[in-house]
Amino acid sequence: MLTPETLPRHELTGLPVRVADATHDGYVGIAGRVVEETERTLLVESSDAVGGAQDSGASVRQVPKAAATFEFRLPADTTPSDDASARPGGVQEAEDAFVTVAGERLVARPARRTEHRGDSIWR
C-alpha cells in the first residue's frame, strides 16, 4: 500500500508531483505528472498538458533527482463508513496527502529502489 512513509520504495510513474526546491531556480515550480523515471531523473509532463490532447503543446521536463526536493500528491483512499456524515452510499472521502521527499533519497534505478525494504545500512 502506498503511504507517505513508504513512498520512496514505490513506483513514482503516474503520481502528481511538484518541484518544491532545487539547486537551479529553473526547476522550482515544475509541476505535473511523472511520466518516466530513470536512475537519476524524473520526467514530468507539465500540468497544463496532463489529461489533455497531445498536440496542445504538452511539455515534458527532465528534472535531476539529486538536485531537487519533490512534493508528491498521494490520492486519498475512499473508505466505507458507518458515520452519519459520510456521503450517500456509505463512503467517506479522505483528503489527499502531500509528501515532500529529498531527491537524493530517490537516486537509484527504479527497480532496485523498490526492492529495498527501508533505509537499512545492511544490504
Task: Please explain how this structure is put together.
The protein has 123 residues and is mainly β. The protein has a single domain, classed as SH3 type barrels. It contains 1 helix and 8 strands. It has a 6-stranded antiparallel β-sheet with strand order 4-3-2-1-5-8, with no helix packed on it. It has a two-stranded antiparallel ribbon with strand order 6-7. The longest helix is centred in the last third of the chain and has 6 residues, at 110-115. Residues 49-54 have low confidence and may be disordered.
What order do the helices and strands come in, and which of them pair?
Blueprint (H helix, E strand, L loop, with lengths): L15 E7 L8 E7 L3 E6 L13 E5 L3 E7 L3 E3 L10 E3 L3 E6 L7 H6 L8
Antiparallel strand pairs: 1-2, 1-5, 2-3, 3-4, 5-8, 6-7
Task: State the gist of this model.
By secondary structure, the chain is mostly beta strands. Helices cover 5% and strands 36% of the residues.
Please tell me the CATH architecture by its name.
Roll
Classified in CATH, the superfamily is Ribonuclease P/MRP, subunit p29
The poorly predicted ranges are: 49-54
Work out the radius of gyration. Answer: 17 Å
Please name the CATH topology.
SH3 type barrels
What is the string of helix and strand elements?
Answer: EEEEEEEEH
Summarize the main sheet. Answer: 6 strands, antiparallel
Side by side, the strands of the main sheet go: 4-3-2-1-5-8
Number of domains: 1
What structural category arises from helix and sheet content? Answer: mainly beta
Task: Indicate the percent of residues in helices.
Answer: under 10%
What value does the average pLDDT take? 79
